[in-house]
Design brief:
heterodimer; A: BirA Bifunctional Protein, domain 2; 2 domains; two-stranded antiparallel sheet; 13 helices; 9 strands; B: 804 residues; Phenylalanyl-tRNA Synthetase, Chain B, domain 3; 6 domains; seven-stranded mixed β-sheet; six-stranded antiparallel β-sheet
C-alpha cells in the first residue's frame, strides 16, 4: 500500500461514516475500520513492509487517519443519538415497568385511621379495651337498667352471668374514667358484637368508634355539635352540615341522633339519603350523671359529652359499599380497590 | 306504634296541620316517625255497590266465575276469580272506566276465556283499604246497589308509624302522644268520658281479689259486668284496631284492646263463669305449674313468675297473656275486667323466659302510668255498658300496694344553660316543662322544683328535666362553630403509631389487609388444629353453629381466604390480619390477645416476568421468613431466633418457630397439601402468626448513632461446597470464629445444589466485608484473614473452598 491508497481509504472511510444512518450501521463501520481485524490495524501491520524512507510519512498519515476516524465516529455517533429516529428502537417505553406490589388497607381500618386522625387533631387520644367485658362495664355503669332489652340473651353474647362480648365500645370509657381524673378526652375504636343474623346491613361483628370528653369546666351540647360538625366537614367534605334529633340512650342525657347532610347530593335528596337530604351517622349526648356516679366522679363538678358511630356504616356510605358482607369476605378483587 | 291521625284528633286538634309538619314536629322532639301510611283513597263514581245476581262456574276455567251483577240501573256480565264470590252478596263494583287504586289500571270491557266481562269486583287491597286480598270485599247486606262506594266506605286515613324509645312508655298510647302534641303545639288536651251507670249486686258479692305478691303486683282493680251482649264491636272501633295492627275479635276483647291503645293501660277480661270460687288470687306460680295460654300453647311456669289464679289454678300469666280456660267465648255474659299495675322487671323476666311477648308485656316491661289503672277500668266499663248493653255491678275492688309517688325534681337554670349551651330564660324553661304536665312546686331565681306526673316514670333527676327542656325547645338553634380545644395532659399514642407502622410496612410489602369474624365453627378450627380444642372458648348462645367458637388463632380464616382468592384466579394472593384471639386458661379464666397473621400462596415476591417458574417449598418459606424478618427489623423489635417447629396444619419439616429475647412469639410454615386441596391449590401456601405486643415493644427505641465509615471496606467472595445437611448458621459461625474483628459483614449471595453431588452437597457463596474504623486495610491483611477463614472452614466443616 502506498500513501495515495492510504489517503483514498481515509477519504472513503470518512464518507461512509458521514452516510451512516443508524448507530448500528455506524458500529459496523467502526468494526470494519478499527476492529481487531479491521482495516486500520491491517494497515499498521503493513508498516514494516513500507520502504524505510516512506515509513515516517506513512506512519504519520496512518495516525492522522486513526484520529480522524475516532473524531468522525464520535461526532456522527452523537448526531445519531440526538435524532429521534436513532433512539426509537433502543427502548420500548410502552413495556410495563418493574412494579413494587403494594397491599390494600382494609376499608374498616382505613375509616378508623381517618376518624381517629381527625379527632386526634381535636385533642382526642385513642383508648382501647378488651372484647370480653363485664356486665358492669358494658351495661351497669352505663346506666342500662337490669331489664333493658339490650341485655337480652337474644341480643348479647353472654359467657356467664357476668362476662360477655362487648356490644359497644363504651365500656372503654368506663375503664378510662375509673383510672383517670378529668379532663378526659378519648376516642375508642374497636370491635363489638351483636347477636344479629348476617344480611346486607347486619353483621354479628361490627366496629364502633366512640368519643368521650369530660372536663371540670362547662361542656355543653353546643360544644358537642361544634365537635361533630368539625368532624363532619373533615370526613365528608367542607359543605356538610350536622343536625341533632332528640333520642334516647341510657348513658347520655340529653341524647341525640346525629345526621350529616348528604355529601352526595348536597342535601337535595338522593338514593343514598333516601330523598331526605340527611344521613344518620352517630348517636351522642351529654353524659348521664348516673354514669359519673358509677365511676366515682362527682356529677356536680364535671360536664361532658359522648358520641358513637358505626365504622362499617361510615365505610359503606363513604365508599358506596352496598352489602356489609363484602367487608368480611376478604375477596382481593374487592379489597385491592382500596389500595 | 301506629297512630291514626283521626283518632289522635279526638284528644287534641291536629287535623288542620299538614301530616308532614306533624311528623317533623314529633321527630325533632324525640319521637321518630318511621313511616306515614295512607289507608284508602277517595273513590269516584265509577265505584258503586253491586249485587251479585247469579254466579256460575266458568266453563273454560277451574277457578273463574261468570256472574251477573246489578249496579242499580243495569245488569252487567262480570268474570270474577275470587273464591268467595256467590249469588246474593253485595260487593264493591268497579265499572268500566274506573281506575283501580292498587295498580292504577283502568277497567275496560274484556273477554276472559271467551266470556265477556264488563267491570270488576274488588278486594280490599285493590281499593287500598287493607292488605286483604283473599277474596272480594263483601258489603253489608242492606247496602243499596248503585250507591257510590265513597258514601259508605270509611274516609281515607293517615297513620303515623312511630319508633317509641325505651324511656318513653307514656308514648305507647294515643292519649300519650296527644299529650306530647298538646305540649308541642300549645293546644289543650281533651280526655274521653268514663261515666256509666251501675245496677245489681255490688262487686264485692260477685268477686273477691287477694294479692299474695304485693311486691310484684302494685295494684289490682276489678269490676264486674253482667248481661253483656258480646258480638262484633262497632265498625269504627274495628277500623281503628285494624289500623293499629290489632285484629278485632268481638266487643269484649276489642274494648280491652281499644282502651289499651287509647291510654296505654293493658286490661284483661275474664269469663266470670270460669273463675273458681269467683276469686282472683295474684300470686307467684308454683314451680312447674302449667297453663294453656290464649295462643293455644302449653306453658310451664317457675316460681318467680306472677300469675292471676282463681281458687284452683292460674287463669292468666300476669301482664303477659291470658289463659285459654277463662277466655271470652261465645256465650260469655258475665265479665270481670282486670286493670292492674305490675312491676316492670318481673314482667320482663317472665316474657323473656317464656319467649312470649304481647302488647301488654311490651307496655308493662317499660312502665305504665302509676295512676291509670282505675281510670282505664272505668273507660272500658263505660264502653262495654254503651256498646254491649252491659249491667255494671256497683263498686270496684282495688287492692292498692303502689310505691310512693315519684319525688319532686329540682332543676337549676344555670346548670341547664351550661349543659344545653343556649342562653334560655327561666320562664322559657319552666314553660316547656309545665306544657308536659309537670307542675312547679317551688321556684326562685336560681332554680325550680317540679312535681312529676304519674305517667312520666322516666323523670327521676335534674338531667332528665334538662333533656325535656332541650328536646321541647329544639336543638336547631345550637351554633355550628369550631370547638375550643384545650390540650389534655398525660396522653400517649405510642401503641397506635406502632400498630400503624406495622400495618403500613406490611402493605408496603404487598400484603393486603384482611378482616375476619372473631368466631367460626368448631369444625373449621378442628380441621386446622384439633389439639387445641379443649382450650377454646365456646359461645353459649351463638347465632349459628358456623359462628360458635371464638378463634384461638387467626390462621384458619387466613388460610381459607387465601385459598378462596387462589380459587378465584389470584396468582399470588397475599394477606395479613391484625386481630384478637381468645382462649380459656387452665383455671377457667377467659383471655384474649392481639395477634398478627401473614400469608400468601404462589409466586409471591417475584417480578411480573418471573411468575411462571414453579415455586419450591424452600422459596415460599424463605419469602415468608423474610417478611417476618423485615417487619421485625422495621419495628426495631430485636433479633429473632428461628427453630424448626411442627404444627398439625403444617407440612412436616416445613414449620419454624420465631422467638424474641428467648420468648416464643409465633410460628411460620407451609400449609399441608391436604388442606390446600380444597381450593385445588397446587402451589405452596405459606402462613404465619405472631403475637403483636412483642413486635411493638421496641417501636420507640433508637440505637445510638454510629459514625459513618471513614475508610473503604474490602470485599472477598468465598464459595463453599458443603454437606447438604450443614446449615447456613453453622457456616456463618465458623467464619466468624476464624475471622478478625475487621470482618464486618457476611452476606450469602448464591446457593445451589450441583447436580453431580446428587443432593448430598450444596454450594453456598458468601461476600465477606472487612473494614477498619482507623485506616484502609491492606490487601495482604485481608488475604491473610481470608486464608485463616478458609483453613478453618475446610478443617472444621469439611468444606471445599473456592475463593475469589
Amino acid at each position: 500500500m502506498n500513501l495515495e491508497e492510504l489517503a483514498a481509504l481515509h477519504a472513503k472511510s470518512l464518507a461512509e461514516i458521514e452516510q451512516a444512518e443508524t448507530p448500528a450501521a455506524l458500529e459496523q463501520i467502526r468494526i470494519r475500520y478499527l476492529g481487531r481485524n479491521g482495516l486500520l490495524p491491517a494497515v499498521m501491520k503493513q508498516l514494516k513492509d513500507v520502504p524505510a524512507d516512506e515509513r515516517p510519512a506513512f506512519g504519520r498519515q496512518a495516525n492522522a487517519w486513526r484520529q480522524a476516524l475516532d473524531a468522525a465516529l464520535s461526532t456522527r455517533g452523537e448526531a445519531l443519538a440526538d435524532s429521534p429516529a436513532g433512539t426509537a428502537p433502543a427502548f420500548d417505553s410502552s413495556l410495563p415497568g418493574r412494579w413494587f406490589a403494594t397491599g390494600a388497607q382494609h376499608p374498616v381500618s382505613r375509616v378508623i385511621d381517618e376518624v381517629t386522625r381527625i379527632f386526634g387533631r381535636l385533642g382526642f387520644t385513642v383508648a382501647d379495651g378488651p372484647d370480653i367485658e363485664t356486665r358492669f362495664n358494658n351495661f351497669t355503669a352505663l346506666n342500662t337498667a337490669a331489664h333493658h332489652p339490650s341485655m337480652d340473651a337474644a341480643d348479647t353474647f353472654w359467657f356467664d352471668d357476668d362476662l360477655l362480648l362487648r356490644t359497644q365500645t363504651s365500656p372503654v370509657q368506663i375503664r378510662v374514667m375509673l383510672n383517670h381524673q378529668p379532663p378526659v378526652r378519648i376516642i375508642t375504636p374497636g370491635r363489638c358484637y351483636r347477636r344479629d343474623t348476617t344480611d346486607a346491613t347486619h353483621s354479628a361483628n361490627i366496629h364502633q368508634i366512640e368519643g368521650l370528653y369530660v372536663d371540670t369546666r362547662p361542656v355543653s351540647l353546643a360544644d358537642l355539635k361544634a365537635t361533630l360538625a368539625t368532624f363532619a366537614r373533615e370526613m365528608m367534605g367542607p359543605g356538610v352540615g350536622v343536625r341533632f334529633r332528640p333520642h334516647f340512650f341510657p348513658f347520655t342525657e340529653p341524647s341525640v341522633e346525629v345526621d350529616f347532610s348528604c355529601h352526595l347530593c348536597d342535601g337535595k335528596g338522593c338514593r343514598v339519603c333516601k330523598q331526605s337530604g340527611w344521613i344518620e351517622i352517630a348517636g351522642a349526648g351529654m353524659v348521664d350523671p348516673r354514669v359519673y356516679r358509677h365511676v366515682g366522679y362527682d356529677p356536680e363538678k364535671v360536664y361532658g359529652f359522648a358520641f358513637g358511630m358505626g365504622v362499617e356504616r361510615i365505610a359503606m356510605i363513604r365508599y358506596g359499599i352496598a352489602d356489609i358482607r363484602h367487608l368480611y369476605e376478604n375477596d382481593l378483587r374487592f379489597l385491592t380497590q382500596f389500595a | 306504634m301506629k297512630v291514626p291521625i283521626s283518632w289522635l284528633n279526638e284528644y287534641v286538634d291536629v287535623a288542620d296541620i299538614p301530616v308532614r309538619e306533624l311528623a317533623d314536629k314529633l321527630t325533632f322532639s324525640g319521637v321518630e316517625v318511621e313511616g306515614i301510611e295512607e289507608i284508602g283513597v277517595v273513590l269516584d263514581d265509577h265505584f258503586v255497590v253491586g249485587e251479585v245476581l247469579t254466579c256460575e262456574a266458568h266453563p273454560n276455567s277451574d277457578h273463574l266465575h261468570v256472574c251477573t251483577v246489578s249496579d242499580g240501573t243495569e245488569t252487567l256480565p262480570i268474570v270474577c276469580g275470587a273464591p268467595n264470590c256467590r249469588a246474593g252478596i253485595k260487593v264493591a263494583l268497579a265499572r268500566i272506566g274506573a281506575v283501580v287504586p292498587e295498580g292504577g289500571f283502568t277497567i275496560k270491557q274484556a273477554k276472559r276465556r271467551g266470556a265477556v266481562s264488563r267491570g270488576m269486583l274488588c278486594s280490599a287491597r285493590e281499593l287500598k283499604l287493607s292488605d286483604d286480598h283473599d277474596g272480594i270485599m263483601i258489603l253489608d247486606a242492606d247496602a243499596v246497589p248503585g250507591t257510590p262506594l265513597r258514601t259508605i266506605l270509611p274516609p281515607p286515613e293517615t297513620v303515623l308509624d312511630l319508633e317509641i324509645t325505651w324511656n318513653r312508655p307514656d308514648c305507647l298510647s294515643i292519649i300519650g302522644l296527644a299529650r306530647e302534641f298538646a305540649a308541642l303545639l300549645g293546644r289543650p288536651l281533651r280526655m274521653p268520658g268514663v261515666a256509666f251507670e251501675t245496677a245489681g249486686e255490688p262487686v264485692e258479692q260477685l268477686a273477691a281479689v287477694r294479692v299474695e305478691a304485693p311486691d310484684l303486683c302494685w295494684r289490682y282493680t276489678a269490676r264486674v259486668l253482667t248481661q253483656v251482649e258480646d258480638g262484633p264491636s262497632p265498625a269504627w272501633m274495628q277500623r281503628r284496631l285494624e289500623q293499629c295492627g290489632v285484629r278485632p275479635l268481638g266487643l269484649i276483647v276489642d274494648v280491652t284492646n281499644y282502651v289499651m291503645l287509647e291510654c296505654g293501660q293493658p286490661l284483661h277480661a275474664f269469663d266470670h263463669r270460669h273463675l273458681a270460687d269467683r276469686t282472683i288470687i295474684v300470686r307467684r306460680a308454683r314451680e312447674g305449674e302449667h297453663i294453656r295460654t290464649l295462643d293455644g300453647m302449653d306453658r310451664t311456669l317457675d316460681s318467680e313468675m306472677l300469675v292471676i289464679a282463681d281458687a284452683h289454678e292460674p287463669a292468666a300469666i300476669a301482664g303477659v297473656m291470658g289463659g285459654a280456660e277463662s277466655e271470652i267465648v261465645e256465650g260469655t255474659r258475665t265479665v270481670l275486667v282486670e286493670s292492674a299495675l305490675f312491676a316492670a322487671p318481673s314482667i320482663k323476666r317472665t316474657a323473656t323466659t317464656l319467649g312470649l311477648r304481647s302488647e301488654s308485656s311490651h307496655r308493662f316491661e317499660r312502665g305504665v302510668d302509676l295512676d291509670l289503672a282505675d281510670w282505664a277500668s272505668r273507660r272500658a266499663v263505660a264502653l262495654l255498658a254503651q256498646y254491649g248493653n252491659a249491667r255494671v255491678a256497683p263498686g270496684v275492688i282495688d287492692a292498692d300496694h303502689r310505691p310512693a309517688p315519684q319525688a319532686p325534681v329540682r332543676m337549676r337554670f344555670q346548670r341547664a344553660r351550661e349543659v344545653i349551651g343556649l342562653p334560655l330564660a327561666p320562664e322559657t324553661m319552666i314553660g316547656h316543662l309545665t306544657s308536659l304536665g309537670l307542675q312547679t312546686a317551688d321556684s326562685d331565681s336560681e332554680s325550680a322544683t317540679f312535681a312529676i306526673p304519674s305517667w312520666r316514670v322516666d323523670l327521676e333527676c335534674e338531667a332528665d328535666l334538662i333533656e325535656e327542656v332541650a328536646r321541647l325547645h329544639g336543638l336547631d338553634e345550637l351554633p355550628d362553630i369550631m370547638p375550643l380545644v384545650l390540650a389534655v395532659p398525660g396522653t400517649d399514642d405510642t401503641r397506635v403509631r406502632a400498630v400503624s407502622l406495622c400495618r403500613q410496612t406490611l402493605l408496603g410489602f404487598g400484603l393486603s389487609e384482611a378482616m375476619h369474624y372473631s368466631f367460626l365453627s368448631a369444625d373449621e378450627l378442628n380441621t386446622f388444629d384439633a389439639t387445641a380444642n379443649d382450650r377454646r372458648l365456646v359461645l353459649p348462645n351463638p347465632v349459628s353453629a358456623d359462628y360458635a367458637v371464638m378463634r384461638d388463632s387467626l390462621l384458619p380464616q387466613l388460610v381459607q381466604s387465601l385459598g378462596r382468592n387462589f380459587a378465584r384466579q389470584m396468582e399470588a394472593p397475599a394477606l395479613f390480619e391484625i386481630g384478637r384471639v381468645f382462649s380459656q386458661t387452665p383455671e377457667g379464666g377467659l383471655t384474649e390477645e392481639e395477634h398478627l397473621s401473614i400469608g400468601f400462596g404462589g409466586p409471591f415476591g417475584r417480578g411480573a416476568l418471573d411468575r411462571r417458574r414453579s415455586v419450591t417449598n424452600e422459596e415460599a418459606l424463605l419469602w415468608l421468613k423474610g417478611i417476618a424478618e423485615s417487619l421485625l427489623c422495621r419495628l426495631h423489635a430485636g433479633e429473632p431466633a428461628f427453630e424448626p417447629a411442627e404444627h398439625p396444619a403444617f407440612e412436616p419439616g416445613w414449620g419454624i418457630s420465631v422467638a424474641l429475647a428467648g420468648e416464643k412469639i409465633g410460628l411460620l410454615g407451609l400449609i399441608r397439601g391436604t388442606l390446600r386441596h380444597a381450593w385445588r391449590m397446587n402451589v405452596p401456601m405459606a402462613v404465619g402468626e405472631l403475637k403483636l405486643e412483642p413486635l411493638l415493644a421496641g417501636f420507640d427505641k433508637r440505637e445510638p448513632l454510629k459514625p459513618v465509615p471513614a475508610y473503604p471496606g474490602v470485599r472477598r467472595d468465598l464459595a463453599l461446597l458443603v454437606p447438604a445437611s450443614l446449615t447456613h448458621e453453622r457456616i456463618v459461625e465458623a467464619i466468624r470464629e476464624a475471622a478478625p474483628e475487621s470482618l464486618t459483614d457476611i452476606r450469602l449471595f448464591d446457593i445451589f445444589m450441583p447436580k453431580e453431588t446428587r443432593g448430598e452437597r450444596r454450594s453456598l457463596a458468601y461476600t465477606l466485608e472487612f473494614r477498619s474504623a482507623e485506616r484502609t486495610l491492606t490487601d495482604d491483611e485481608v488475604n491473610a484473614a481470608c486464608q485463616k477463614i478458609i483453613k478453618a472452614v475446610s478443617e472444621t466443616l469439611g468444606a471445599e473452598v473456592r475463593a475469589g
